[in-house]
From TrEMBL:
Its main location: nucleus. It comes from Zea mays (Maize). It is found in: Nucleus. Keywords: Nucleus. This is FAM192A/Fyv6 N-terminal domain-containing protein. The keyword Protein biosynthesis does not apply. GO terms for cellular component: nucleus. Residues 35-54 are annotated as: Disordered. It comes from the Eukaryota. Residues 30-113 form the FAM192A/Fyv6 N-terminal domain. Signal peptide: none annotated. Residues 35-51 have a biased composition (Basic and acidic residues).
Amino acid sequence: MAGKEMTPNSKAAAPPATIRLVNFISEDQLDEVKRTRGERVEDGTAQRDKPLFQILQENKEKKDAEFNERFKHRPPKALDEDETEFLDKLALSRKEYEQQVANEEAEQLRGFHEAVAARSTVVHELETPTVSRPELKLNYASTYPCLGEQT
C-alpha cells in the first residue's frame, strides 16, 4: 500500500478471520460419544439393516404421500377458455376418427358380404343339375372310347 495514505475514515484491512474446520476427535472420545448417545446410521457409526436403495425408496414414498395429502383436499382448478376450447377440439377429432373407423369397417363388411354372395352364386350355379343329353354322351363315347365305359 505504498502511496496510499491511511485516514481515519478509510477502512483498514481487518485481520483475516480464522476459519474453523471440523473438530476432529480421538477414537476414545468417539467411543465415549457412542456409549452416551448410542450408535446412529446418519454418522456411519451403526450398520444399516436395509439396502440404501430401499431406504431412499421409502423416503421418496413418504414425501410423495405427504405432498399428495397436502393437495388432496384442494378443490380442482376451473378450466379457462383455452383449455375448454382444446378439450372440445379433442373430443370432436376423436368423434370424427371413430366415425371414420366405423365407416371403413362398414365398407369392408359390405365388401365381404358381396364377395360371399358372389361366391355362393357361383357355387349354386355349379351345383344345379343339368339336363343330360344321351346323344352327346354317345358321340363322346364314339370319339373317346374310354369315356363310354365311365358313364
